[in-house]
Write a structure and sequence with these properties.
21% strand; alpha/beta; 10 helices; 7-stranded parallel beta sheet; Arc Repressor Mutant, subunit A; 36% helix
């Protein structure tokens, strides 16, 4: 197969899947791994894809494997997260059993919560403390405490989560991709998010994410892109706006 033919097929595969590995391309094209790497390097130089370790991703998506601490995250996009938290809080109704995931975006939701006729469940120590000191009824999931994100994780936490049925749930994410879904850096936190989403009423699962999260891909997928409504601070690119259920500042009452 000629070089240009291989490159054409590589670009088609990346466009279709969002990302692809060298091993997948080796099988698809019946070419050596060194040939695949050379083609990817040339396409990367031409700006037609992004070369990453072990493969390539679409130029419209960026892989993000770094996990920031709560302190680091707490100073990023503060105004946007405040808007998102206030929008998300309007979705809580009297009588709800509410799950609130750990994270800084959900922390702004906690700050904005006002519904006292609801029960709140969280795997974040800081969220639980914030709520209980303000007179809300709170249940804190038990398990292992992770230092960097201050989240409760692990098998004990999973078993605790599975006892609940949440009428509404709010979750953070590190990346939003049409093809790769919602992703996060840590497999243990991803498992917590996945189980909590499964325990939440399908029509009332909300992902809280500022505009910078669109197009990012982190290490571990925890939900498909259609599994939740995204609460965000600004309308994303058309390919997202036309494909996703969104709650934006100008229309907080009904998801698109």
């Amino acid at each position: 197969m000629l070089s240009e033919q291989r490159k054409f097929q590589i670009l088609n595969a990346v466009k279709e899947k969002g990302s692809i590995t060298n091993s997948e391309l080796k099988e698809l094209l019946d070419a050596s791994e060194s040939t695949i790497r050379r083609d990817i390097t040339e396409l990367d130089r031409e700006g037609k894809l992004i070369k990453v370790f072990g493969g390539a991703i679409s130029v419209n998506e960026t892989e993000s494997f770094e996990e920031l601490s709560m302190q680091q995250k707490s100073v990023i996009n503060l105004d946007e997260k405040k808007i998102i938290g206030e929008l998300a809080a309007t979705q809580i109704k009297p009588g709800d059993c509410v799950y609130i995931d750990s994270g800084t975006s959900t922390g702004f939701l906690v700050d904005a919560v006002s519904e006292k006729e609801a029960v709140y469940v969280t795997n974040a120590v800081a969220h639980a403390k914030n709520l209980v000191l303000r007179g809300f009824k709170v249940f804190l999931i038990g398990g292992e405490l992770k230092e960097t994100t201050e989240a409760i994780i692990g098998e004990t936490a999973i078993l605790s989560l599975q006892k609940y049925h949440f009428s509404v749930g709010f979750f953070g994410t590190n990346g939003i991709s049409l093809k790769r879904g919602f992703t996060t850096p840590d497999i243990r936190e991803a498992t917590m998010k996945k189980v909590a989403i499964q325990c939440t009423a399908p029509q009332r699962r909300f992902i809280l994410a500022d505009h910078d999260k669109f197009g990012l891909i982190s290490t571990v997928k925890f939900a498909d892109i259609g599994d939740a409504i995204i609460v965000t601070d600004a309308k994303p690119a058309e390919k997202y706006a036309n494909s996703l259920k969104l709650i934006l500042p100008e229309q907080a009452d009904e998801p698109k």
